[in-house]
Amino acid sequence: MLLRPLRDTLDDAKAVTQVADEAFAASRADRGRPPRTVSERERAMGRALFRHLARTDGGGCWTAWDDEGTPVGAVLSTRREGTWALSLIAVVPRLQRQGVARELLAAAMTYGRSCLRGMICAPSDPRPAAMYRAAGFTLHPTMRLSGPVDRDRLPAPDGPVHEGTVKHRDLMDSVDRRLRGGAHGPDHDELLRHHGLLVVDDLAGSGYVYLHESGTVELLAATSRRLASRLLTAALLAVPRGTDARVGFLTADQQWAVDVGLAAGLTPANSGYLCLRGMRPPAPYVPSGTFL
Fold this sequence. Notes:
Elements: E1 2-5, H1 10-30, H2 40-56, E2 62-65, E3 71-80, E4 83-91, H3 100-111, E5 117-122, H4 126-134, E6 138-147, E7 162-163, H5 169-180, H6 187-194, E8 196-202, E9 205-211, E10 216-222, H7 225-238, E11 245-250, H8 255-263, E12 267-277, E13 285-286
Parallel strand pairs: 4-5, 10-11
Antiparallel strand pairs: 1-2, 2-3, 3-4, 5-12, 6-11, 6-12, 7-8, 8-9, 9-10, 10-13
Protein name: GNAT family N-acetyltransferase
Pfam families: Acetyltransf_1
Organism: Streptantibioticus parmotrematis
């Protein structure tokens, strides 16, 4: 097996997509869940993300290939100031439980060895959870909120919320540093290409939230629970009608988000782990499964 850095090419992005599709389909089947249909638009978004990470974090993104030149594994990670984060790790089913994932994780963690803090969003599968714990991460169980938004039950935001643009990058980086010890930096550029952005900025503090058209709250950070609640309320009210909302990877520190979700009629459920090293769960905060 050969490990080599991910390149900023369409072929390498397609290779990561192929590996991730096989790995995640097998994981869903193991849990008795039906196959997930992925639209071409979602695939294009994924390929753009992989190429973005190859450009910004070449040393933290690796692919694994077998002797026949077939892609069999991939890992993507970022290093933002003092915070390292794992964006994706996947191995094709036929090579799982053979140490490939550990080799990939070790390569990615070497890239983050100078970082004081580390973050991973992990599924409920016990195998990756055990691997991250062995690598020194603390496992914080998380919840997700999902379902249709009941607009009649959800109170209006308690203050102004504005549409965000690239001009708010400094504001967002400042909030990131306060909550997670490192700005998202260039990741905001990529997020803005595929998500709507809402921001608050007043005498009480500041914050932001990204919302995907699929109804997923991708990333939320604010300087107070009150502002975070205001942002999440506005985001849920912006979810297209007929589309289920989804807010994931909420630790026990995010009860403000649970309260907003319950007021909107969303259903809570246990779901995975937020794995952290050198830090407490950032709050008020909703991590992105990709950019954390």
